[in-house]
Amino acid sequence: MRSDSNTTPVSGPGFLVISPSLDCNNACIFCYDNYRVKGSRPAASAQEIAADAARMAARMGVGAVAVSGGEPLLYAELEQLTRLLKAAGLFVCVMTNGRLLARAQRLERLLEAGVDHFHIPLHSDDQAAHDAVTGVAGSFAQTVAGLANVAEVRARRPLGLTVVHVMHRRNYRRLPELVDFVAGFAPDHALLSHCIVEVQSPREHLALLARFEDIAPFVAQAHRVGQARGLPVYVENVPPCMMRGREAICVDFHKFNRLAVGGFKAAGERGEGGFEPFEQSIKSGQRTHADQCRRCAIQDFCGGFYRSYIEAMGQPDLEPYSVQELRSRQAAARQTS
Ligand code: SF4
User: Fold this and answer.
1) CA geometry: angle at 294 spanning 289 and 297, to 5°?
2) What pLDDT does residue 4 have?
3) How far, in Å, CA of 286 to CA of 275, rounded?
4) N or C: where does the chain have the smaller number of CB atoms within 10 Å of the terminal CB?
5) pLDDT of amino acid 9
6) Is 120 helix (H, G, I), strand (E, B) or coil?
7) From the CB of 293, is ligand 1 less than 6 Å away?
8) What is the spatial distance between Cα 176 and Cα 172, in angstroms, rounded to a whole number?
9) What PANTHER family does the annotation carry (predicted)?
10) Where do the structural domains in the chain lie, given as residue ranges?
11) Cα separation of 71 and 195, whole Å?
């Protein structure tokens, strides 16, 4: 997330993710909240959520909040929540599927409330493929209209935009075309996110996972397309060793070494408190390393990958770094600087 001239500067590196409700108007095939019972409790008030968020942000020393869901635009008090978070001095990113931003008036109300940044997923550059992922006919048209509205606003005033694309077995071969399409909306970044399957997720989600070595060439090609179009492209949930020469685009590396990430999300009808803690997954029990990682020179700085990957594919075929390789690369970097 970036800090614009008219917005609050981010203090410490990292951010808080908060989810007022799990209600959603999409039903994405990989949604890692699918295992949660989503029936909504009466949502907490914007005042309660903002007060908890401000306390937690202060404790973590971060200055940014990402409001997620479910679909946060379905939370009736989102504008009020945004105003309160801004009043607490926080940078506000809204992680929305973008469909309701097709209504320009809703977008305008959110901007008036103070939203600094939108984080919007696009599942394909092809309408049928996108709608097959969300399970909602017409969702592609609405998300694209929402993206166009945000792009139009960005042409006249500062507003952050990240377009995220969840990579899975059915869509990774079109990553270059996807990035080319996304570039048309001129976001700050495109984020290619390897599909997350959590320990608690339905086991049929495992079939969505694609091998790192199969995805890597398409990510590299998509990165080149982004460079040609002036669009920074990042990747997450893919180990840096699978992005040889492009490690800097691996968001996990930054999250593991520099960023504090935490928060809380609506618990759904689980008989628990209204919210449960959101754990930084890269440092949680969701992650693991492979046998090969034991001989990797950067293991202490690498967050590995999701445990579910081994469940789906067995041990991955990784490319551990040797000390010699790191020394050679450092020497080469010194010579060119
Ligand atoms: S620790 Fe493992 S996953 Fe991480 S870069 Fe090294 S080999 Fe790859």
Assistant:
1) 105
2) 39
3) 20
4) C
5) 42
6) strand
7) yes
8) 9
9) PQQA PEPTIDE CYCLASE, RADICAL SAM DOMAIN PROTEIN
10) 14-286
11) 18
Instruction: Output the residue whose Cα is nearest ligand 1's atom 1.
Output: 299
Q: Identify whether the C-beta of residue 250 lies closer than 8 Å to the C-beta of residue 238.
A: yes
Q: Ligand 1 within 6 A of 296 CB?
A: yes
Model pTM score: 0.90
Altogether, the residues listed in the chain come to a count of: 337
What's the burial of 95, exposed, middle or buried (CB within 10 Å: 0-12/13-18/19+)?
buried
Share of the chain above pLDDT 90, in %: 71
Tell me, using a 6 A CB cutoff, whether residue 304 lines ligand 1.
yes
Q: Which helix (H) or strand (E) holds 25?
A: none
Both tokens of 106, joined, read 């809703």
14-286 has CATH 3.40.366.10 classification: no
Phi, psi of 199 (to 5 degrees): -55, -35
The answer to whether 78 and 114 have CB atoms below 8 angstroms apart is no
> How many whole angstroms from 327 Cα to the centroid of ligand 1?
17
CB 143, CB 109: distance < 8 Å: no
Say if CB 118 and CB 154 are below 8 A apart. Answer: no
